[in-house]
């Protein structure tokens, strides 16, 4: 990256002096029309009163965006080249090595995402969901696939289009499952979106709650997807409290395999979940709460 001072030793089109971009790639039409592709920023600055003189056919009114980003040029100091991979701007072998290893890509996932103990197929699925790579009905529709019923309506609530945000967070059916577990934990922190779930949302949580809410998020996301597929492919619709039981069951089995340092907080959560399940069992046996009744409400 270049920090501009006098603009003398920086090429307008060929160096990254504005937001890390190369202007020749950002404005290819302007670049190909420029009479002097090797013009420096200083020289361009001197032409600001008559910028169209630098171009073969581009009119002055089309140059406003380029003129707007033209930096102030002071006379006193040379432009400074800095290393974009370090905050200090100084080169380091470590940052260069990391760049070579990961290609400069920074994963937004929080650091423990791949270390959490739960089935790898679930972790992989959650990663794909976070990357917005899940084939929801809306995604399939966009890709031009034909459906049996030619609809992208959510099969859980029949009330909205099935997309990532709706299926895993906004859907009334899904919401009741989230609500159960958040209520058990006295938490009201629901993720804003699936792509932010295992990055921003989870890192902003109290560290004590992080592993617990991570496991709950994975269990809810996975079981919602299974139930959605069961409804589509096997025409078998379970009520929301059956999914709560399924989520709780996988959670209790995952808790038992978690690292020792997490066992205390997970044991406490296990007890709370079990107590709430007892209450839910009693409710389920109430004829007013049978599956047909619940589905009619959803
Ligand atoms: Zn829905």
TrEMBL record:
**Which parts of the sequence belong to the Reverse transcriptase zinc-binding domain?**
91-178
What is the name attached to this protein's record?
A: Uncharacterized protein LOC120278572
What species is this protein from?
A: Dioscorea cayennensis subsp. rotundata (White Guinea yam)
